[in-house]
Design goal:
With about 350 residues, the chain is of the alpha/beta class. It contains 12 helices and 15 strands. The radius of gyration is 20 Å and the shape is globular. The structure holds zinc ion (2 copies).
Length: about 350
Amino acid sequence: MLAALITDQETVALQEFDHPEPEPDQVVVDISFCGVCGTDVHSYQSPGPANPSTCGHEWVGHVSGKGADVDRLSEGDRVVIAVPPSCGRCAACHAGQMEKCQTVLLATVGRGPFSTPHGGFAPHLAVHHGRAVLANSALTDEQAAQIEPATICFHAVRATAPRLGDVAVIQGAGPIGLNTMQWVLAAGAGEVIVVEPADARRELAKDLGAHAVVSPGEEADALIAERTKGLGADLVYECAGIPATVQSAVNMTRRGGRMCLIGLAIGDASISPGAWLMKEIKVSAALGYTHEEFEMAMGYVADGRVDLDALHTATVGLDKLEEVLIDLGSGSSTQTKVLIDPRV
Ligand SMILES: [Zn+2]
Ligand SMILES: [Zn+2]
């Protein structure tokens, strides 16, 4: 069996692994689709190997085997990947901060007892059963494969709770921005403005319900000023994931407004602390989700309030992964979410 790993900067290797056998607390999943995430693209562009466990961390598949201690899942169940529930044993759990479990955090970054020798860019994978969430039966496989990133955005928007009437800005209309935008609309924001440089992505944001779309820079500043009587947005979601956009997100926010970081910028960002202080800005950052939030998010996709089909632009085989990483990292890609089908 071949699994794709990012073994160094701009290097994808198809490595041979034995067909996995489940440990007592594991399930083996036959993977149907695995989405390519911005994190995979960052890893491909960065020096050194990507963590094998997170290389392909957005997948759906069917349980094809399970260990003796697994009683909550059966063979044939369709499952999506998640981080495990809180461990109940680490210092954070003992401190009563179950939602800040250190073992879950380690799993999020592909380390610790729940890590795996490769990710979902492979036909089969053995994982701890706690990392497998039953997929809502109303979802297609292509929708279910996109639930992990969708739930990351759901979690962030749920935590920041836009109020009725809020003017919200989504900075960046890649998969994370387009997901976030849909949750913000579902949560009842008054007006949603999407700031994005690529024409095709602005167009897609408009199709998915954005009240206004605009290019970054002076054009965006003018539009936000016009829509808010010069005050700035109530709430800005930073979904571009590049260091320069951290300060621009604050620039678009009104005094006393809120900025939420969802996009993962690698490297340090230059900010203007004076502007943050003068604006009395509230900044929050979001990482991860709970299994309950997975189920909630799947319900919105199942009944059509959130459209993931529009984000899915291509499906290719494992041998095309490197081409996809190059294309998505080029800055001029016409793709939004690309799914890898390891069965091809
Ligand atoms: Zn991801
Ligand atoms: Zn814990």
